[in-house]
Specification:
single chain; about 800 residues; alpha+beta; 5-stranded mixed β-sheet; 5-stranded antiparallel β-sheet
Length: about 800
């Protein structure tokens, strides 16, 4: 009844309001009167029909206004209650002056030992008086240009940010002041909620009431996270530039300030171009605010981005190369908010015992071989191929002298270690290890590979060519297999660096790093299953909950039969070829590698449970006087210390070589011009071979980096007086074909017609299993019991000790 009364009342009230004020409807109150001038003719007056009025409660606009009013009233009430409750529970803002972070990042080894603790606190607090004016101005220009004029909340900045975000339809600009950021760092967590934002604003207002601007900016510059484990500007100056803050230039100050919004994006250790762009933006803002002169701005903008990464001060890590690698991985795996919150426990894959043995091995090898072989740096890494876990990592001789990690950061030419991928592609394509090639002078499209010692071996099968690291056969095989298949197989095995489709690819001229090369060989050890190498197992937060875990992903990179055949062939390299110094008295497979002029010396080897790689060289790429056989000896020095920890395990049984189905489609190269001898001459010097054949060598040959290895002999490694090459002097078999004849073809395969491959071994072998399809995020395939070992090719010579310096001539 009451409701009906009010609705009727509202309807009548609305009708009354529609009538004009001061108007009288005389047609309704009095009869019509004619004036004297009006004609006597009767007239009919038409009155408009009365207007109909809808009640307010039937109008949508009424209800819309009513709902908006109710919402505003309710929202205002709720906001007031939240503000009142928040304001009553605000902490004492004086705590900001003595605040220290209580979270830490603790790194644990695989066996639970603490590797390092990174406290998310400034390890060097700088007073306001000691902060350079340019550094303060850089942060104000980058983060809060109205810092000295607002009271903790920049309402104008909020409006500007809202407008910019609406115009860009994305979150492109924030409006948090420096005072708000101090409030969030000291008193709040990273929760994203309406109540937390209100609390942040109220705390900012209270901080401005109780603290001076100098106190607030001092606290901010000492607490802000700037990436790479640097908390505060003092840490950042040391970590990125190896300087104290009073030594920073304007450009360096601007770069540090530019990292504050997102260190994972703008850190020069992550992306130098992004860091440069952000730095220049800060410099221009400093110029616009009058903090620096035009001349200073021009000088800062022209400065190069020169970064010298250092470990944060007052921290110690026994294995700094590995722990810094883990820090960089954390920045890629976790958002900045979680890193800044701290309280994290990182479970790594490192085996502390093996790591100490690896570092001791590198130290002893440096003292033993470094000086007389003119090798300044060495690096070593060990990876478990069954799960991709990094077990040991030594990135250089002395971390205090150089923080550059030569395992993960150095891109070097792999030399003959890359040949394994060419051979693996050929085997996967259905070729037999006994396929014959002629090792003789060969020029393809102007590119002429040379063997070690510039000698040739004549007819030789792939098994012996890989064992003796024959360059000519590797290039001919690449031509028959094709660039793209080799590149694709190498990438599936674990090579991530760009590979150039060139004839010199077979000799390892495309640069890679030691970690990915070792991981690729580990794929062969793991029956063709590739596991991405990693150093972090899990990350736990302060409550012990897992916030990151390495995904259990794997891929069948090549079929198991190809992996088993390649392992059998690479065993021949160790047990009778260029890798003899790596022999352990147990099944070992591996490959040596040497780049042009002995600039890079490699050995990558593996047993079923562990793959390890050794690199030797100089950071400036100057030639050495060493040999890849030295790298093999260092590999043996390290691995021989682990034999008590790793039981002997056999490699998979050699599958049937004949009648295999190809699992990779070959795409032979069609060269434009080929010059190939049918049989070897004595040397490959200019003018050798038939007088009827011209020597065609174009500028393409300059990109060759012929690798050089020799089979192990009783002589120590010696420096070659000629160009680098690979193969063993006199290791080739005698050819029954006439010498001196040459063949010249165009648009051919590039290799002389080889004889038919030898028949497969007469001993029965099991049928090859079909290659499983690539699988991601699945449990690994079940591991069958290890079959009996495959017979390795007979050794040619025992490994030679390396005790005396090399002579002035000779080779690898």
């Amino acid at each position: 009844m009451i409701t009906r009364f009010w609705l009727n009342w509202l309807s009548l009230l609305s009708a009354e309001r529609k009538r004009p004020h001061g108007h009288t409807d005389f047609a309704r109150t009095a009869p019509f009167q004619r004036s004297p001038q009006t004609p006597s003719t009767p007239q009919t007056i038409q009155l408009p029909p009365p207007r109909s009025y809808r009640p307010l409660f039937l109008r949508p606009l009424f209800w819309l206004i009513l709902l908006l009013a109710a919402g505003l009233a309710g929202g205002s009430t709720r906001a007031y209650r939240v503000w009142q409750a928040t304001n009553e529970n605000l902490p004492d803002t004086s705590q900001a002056l003595t605040f220290q972070r209580d979270g830490t990042v603790t790194m644990m080894s695989a066996d639970g030992a603490i590797l390092q603790k990174l406290g998310p606190a400034s390890r060097e607090t700088i007073a306001y008086e000691d902060l350079p004016d340019e550094l303060i101005a850089a942060f104000i220009a980058a983060e809060d240009q109205r810092f000295y004029s607002h009271n903790g909340i920049d309402y104008r900045g909020i409006a500007r940010a809202v407008r910019a975000n609406l115009l860009n339809r994305d979150l492109v600009e924030g409006a948090s002041t420096i005072t708000q950021q101090v409030a969030r760092i000291v008193f709040l967590d990273q929760e994203r909620s309406f109540q937390r934002k209100i609390k942040e604003g109220l705390l900012a207002l209270k901080l401005e009431e109780n603290l001076s601007k100098q106190d607030i900016i001092e606290r901010y510059l000492n607490l802000v996270y700037l990436g790479s484990g640097a908390y505060g500007v003092a840490d950042a100056a040391w970590v990125y530039f190896g300087k104290t803050i009073d030594q920073l230039t304007v450009a360096e100050s601007a770069m540090i300030a530019g990292m504050a919004p997102a260190p994972s994006l703008y850190s020069p250790a992550v992306n130098q171009e992004a860091a440069r762009s952000q730095r220049n933006r800060v410099i221009r803002r400093m110029l616009a605010t009058g903090a620096i002169t035009t001349a200073a701005a021009e000088e800062a903008l022209a400065a190069d981005v020169e970064v010298s990464l250092n470990q944060p001060k007052y921290l110690y890590s026994e294995f700094p190369y590995f722990t810094i690698y883990i820090q960089k991985q954390l920045e890629q795996l976790l958002p900045p908010e979680q890193l800044e919150a701290g309280g994290l426990t990182v479970e790594t894959t490192l085996n502390v015992s093996w790591q100490r043995k690896a570092e001791q091995t590198i130290a002893e090898a440096t003292e033993r071989y470094g000086r007389w072989q003119r090798v300044e740096q060495m690096a070593l890494v060990a990876v478990d191929p069954r799960n991709g876990e990094i077990k040991a990592m030594v990135g250089g001789n002395d971390f205090n002298d150089s923080q550059f990690n030569r395992v993960t950061q150095a891109q070097r030419q792999p030399g003959s270690t890359f040949k394994s991928f060419v051979y693996a592609t050929a085997i996967a394509g259905g070729l037999s290890p006994y396929k014959n090639y002629t090792d003789a002078r060969y020029v393809v499209d102007g590119y002429e590979p040379e063997n070690y010692g510039k000698t040739f071996s004549g007819d030789i099968d792939l098994l012996r060519a890989l064992r003796n690291s024959v360059n000519v056969v590797a290039v001919k095989l690449l031509v028959d297999v094709g660039f793209d298949p080799v590149i694709q197989v190498a990438q599936r095995l674990g090579i991530q660096s760009p590979l150039l489709p060139a004839y010199s690819l077979a000799l390892g001229t495309s640069e890679v790093n030691l970690l990915e090369l070792t991981s690729a060989y580990g794929t062969l050890a793991n029956k063709g299953v590739h596991r991405q190498p990693h150093g972090i197992r899990r990350v736990l937060d302060g409550n012990g909950e897992v916030i990151y875990e390495t995904p259990n992903e794997w891929e069948q990179a090549i079929d198991p039969d190809t992996a088993a055949i390649m392992t059998w062939m690479l065993r021949g390299v160790v047990e009778g070829g260029t890798g003899g110094n790596a022999s352990l008295g147990r099944p070992v497979a591996g490959k040596t590698g040497t780049s042009e002029n002995y600039r890079d010396l490699w050995f990558i080897g593996y047993i079923p449970q562990l793959a390890a790689g050794v690199w030797m060289g100089n950071d400036d790429s100057t030639p050495t006087r060493g040999a890849s056989s030295t790298a093999a000896a260092i590999w043996r020095m390290f691995m021989s210390q682990l034999t008590d920890d790793i039981p002997v395990e056999q490699f998979p049984e050699l599958p049937r070589l004949g009648g295999r189905e190809a699992t990779v489609e070959l795409q032979p190269v069609r060269p434009g011009r080929v010059v190939a001898d049918d049989s070897p001459g004595q040397t490959a010097s200019p003018g050798s071979g038939s007088s009827a054949t011209s020597r065609t060598v174009s500028s393409q040959s300059s990109e060759s980096s012929s690798s050089s290895e020799s089979s192990a002999s009783s002589d120590p490694p010696r420096t070659s007086s000629g160009g680098s090459g690979s193969g063993s002097s006199g290791a080739g078999s005698s050819s029954s074909r006439p010498r001196g004849t040459t063949s010249e073809s165009t648009n051919g395969s590039g290799s002389s017609a080889p004889p038919k491959p030898a028949a497969a071994p007469s001993t029965p072998a099991p049928q090859p299993a079909p290659a499983p399809q690539p699988v991601v995020n699945q449990e690994p395939p079940p591991v069958a019991p290890a079959p009996p070992p495959a017979p390795a090719p007979p050794p040619l010579a025992p490994p030679a000790p390396l005790e005396s310096p090399p002579s002035s001539n000779g080779g690898d």
